[in-house]
Known about the structure:
By secondary structure, this protein is mainly alpha-helical.
Amino acid sequence: MRMPFSLWIWKALFGLALAGLAGTPVLPAATHDDSVALQPPDVLFGQLYADVEKAQLFPDQKTFADAVPRRDPAAILADYQAQKGQDGFGLGAFVTANFALPYDSDTIYAPQPGQTLRQHIDSLWTVLTRQTASVPPYASLLPLPYPYVVPGGRFREVYYWDSYFTMLGLGESGRWDLVEDMVENFAHEVDVYGHIPNGNRTYYLSRSQPPFFAFMLDLLASHEGDGVYLRYLPQLKEEYAYWMDGADRLARGQATGRVVRLDDGSLLNRYWDDRDVPRTESYLEDVTTASQAAGRPATQVYRDLRAAAASGWDFSSRWLGDGRTLASVRTTAIAPVDLNSLLYHLETTLARASALDRDVGDTADYALRAARRLQAINTHLWNPMGYYADYDWQQRKLSNQVTAATLYPLFAAVALPDRARRTARTARTQLLKQGGLGTTTVYTGQQWDAPNGWAPLQWIAVQGLRKYGQKGLAQDIAVRFLGNVQALYDSEQKLVEKYAVEGSGIGGGGGEYPLQDGFGWTNGVTMKLLDLYPCAAMGCAPAQDEAVAP
């Protein structure tokens, strides 16, 4: 078995890291094009936007966020102020006259009779592909130069972390043209905005999502070769600068933006959104949540809700102070194990790309940062009960909650071998269910809690476990999840955003919106798992675990 590059970095530098290297690396500041002044709809339309969302004219608050104004926003707003007090004024009629509303029927697609699950997914790529090199004036949609695949349903734009899992399936379907197009789009966003936004909407510009760009490059390089890393090295550096902005000025025990410095000087990261107002796409929900948070400033609640959206886990008991109610959300107080594992991989990828570029200084610098983060993760994010977990840097307390995020250190090859084995045991005993890997063990009604299981988390678990020789559990998770997906497809001829894993053939529930069909990342992960485990439909022979040296 070939040693992953990140394990090579660990082997070469972990000893140095444990020795307690002095000093703090000087990190480049994030930059972006300040001339790109793109205002989200809630800013463009002010009180009109708030009034429309509070009136609940549409069943989904994202509908108005995605609407396209038919003329200059200033003129629309002036007319609204002049007309709203007049007899006979109707808010719904005013909106219909002044905005073009989104239409979702093009993502509702039934398979052809007799199509297998794999054939259905192959045919869905065209249905879910969009091309928006130009957009109407004042639209919230951000243009992208190349085609891209959307998740489906209410999600009419490309999403950052979703896309990695979608791209896995595109590659499996032989659609490497779309994989490269999507990588090019994300590189374009880094060039224009200084980071990859949550999605290509103006209201997503204030935050990113889990940083999977380096993993996207791994995928593309598996098809095109290592030249991919050199081609996108500038964007890798820029994304890293975005996540680490402010680290060089940060005192111990403090945080700024997306960076946290612990009391021992270790650097970790957290999720963050630059705005502290209600989310544009969930305006009324956030206003309602903030009104229920007694004793907390509404702006702090909004920031933590937005940071949870940046995590992709919106919402989960991971972020809740009391573990139950959304009003107790405190995402910015958490240094998450999954985010820091992804940033470790970004650092090792930067070291690898710099080595290919024959830049000795940058190679050593990024490798050292990776070694320091490896030490920080294994020091502060390891629970002695036998799993990796999140760290509350404000309360200086490690979480005791077991979540599917515990497998990210295996996926990113940051876990120590013995700890990987212990984590696998914990996952098997606490998270494995009939229909796949559960997200958490807590029932809150939030969609990133029990009883739901999500395709991306199945892939993270399967790949992470395989890297550390835990082939039996990896196969068990994959086969159970594939059975779940197949059962729902057999009964309803569709794939969905999430699944209930305490059974089989049941769509997931909870959260702010109804279950969505489509569905980009489910399609992608299903295709890859079908490739890894073609025996799933007939019953796979038990796989044997193997020992993996560090």
